Amino acid sequence: MTEITPDAGAREPIHPKPPTPITETPKRQVSNLVLRLFSAAILIPPITWAIFEGGIWVPIFVIGITILGLREFYQLIEAKGAHPLRTFGMIAGTAVPVVAWLGSEYHATILLSAVLVGVMLAQLQKAQIAHALESISTTFFGVFYVGWLLSHVIVLRNFHSVVEGRFGPSAAAGMDPNVGAFYLWFVIAVVVAGDVGAYFAGRAYGKRKLAPTISPGKTLEGAVGAFAAGVLMAVANKAVFDAWWPELTAHIGYLACGIFGGVASVVGIVGDLIESLLKRDAQVKDTSDLLPGMGGVLDRIDSNLLAIPVMYYLLLAFTFLRASVPPGVS
């Protein structure tokens, strides 16, 4: 019998190790919670400072997070056996928030389209066309998922300038130039509160699985807790800023804040599930071990990756509708 040997040029897909078991002992859970609180205590002060300081510090933070996030994303994809153009994707993904800072999300979207064309052209230069489709798809998705979505942090922080450029100075009249600081802080705080609410509500009351095949630990009761905590945090943010920095919240009421908080909470859950789907497919528990008790950068920003862009476009629509209302009509 003739023995058939595999083609020497064929690549065998990478078979990653099985994921870490979901169940943990109470002692392990307490240890992880302490580590999470420690990491949060280290990260929150500089992030808060950058948000309210504004200027060059916001794009610096976004670019740094983009680089780390893209690195983790391409490692995740490679663990699945795919072959993205890592260097091309890292450069292109980092360029997207830079363009958003120098221009707007419109210019970032134009660059995103150019990136797709560039990825396809790069494949034409290869001697081997094997894996071309997966390489194009995974490289571009990384630029979109991390670079383009994160670029909305910059335009949301510069919301006053965006409104002036889109709708004219009259639409931004009475709007504080630093209003974007409140909006950015608002959505991040709401998502974090939702995460905390989901954790405690899920542990106390969780029985019905939300998405058992994607994230077995998430429950419908936890999702309700996330929604409630998000709405409460949204209203609390409005109250606190009304007391200490009222010019930032003068143009938005409690009802709008509550609605936006609820939407951001739900979108945050979806964003978390999307990243859980990617990790489940790659059979890894965390995207990295960079942050003690928290996993990787993508593990921390997954909810905000969707929540911040959605918040940005909702606020644009809200501002447009308010600017379109004739004077004197409430």
Overview of this structure, please?
- This protein is mainly alpha-helical and 330 residues long.
- The protein has one domain.
- 70% of the residues lie in helices and 2% in strands.
- It is built from ten helices and two strands; from the N terminus they run αααααααββααα.
- A two-stranded antiparallel ribbon has the order 1-2.
- A hairpin with a 3-residue loop joins strand 1 and strand 2.
- The longest helix is centred in the C-terminal third of the chain and has 29 residues.
- The radius of gyration is 22 Å and the shape is globular.
- The N terminus and C terminus are likely disordered.
Descriptive labels:
two-stranded antiparallel sheet, 2 strands
Q: What oligomeric state best describes the polypeptide chains here?
A: single chain
Kindly, what is the distance between the CA atoms of the first and last residues, rounded to a whole number of angstroms? 87 Å
Number of self-contained structural domains? 1
For the residues shown, what is the average pLDDT?
Answer: 86
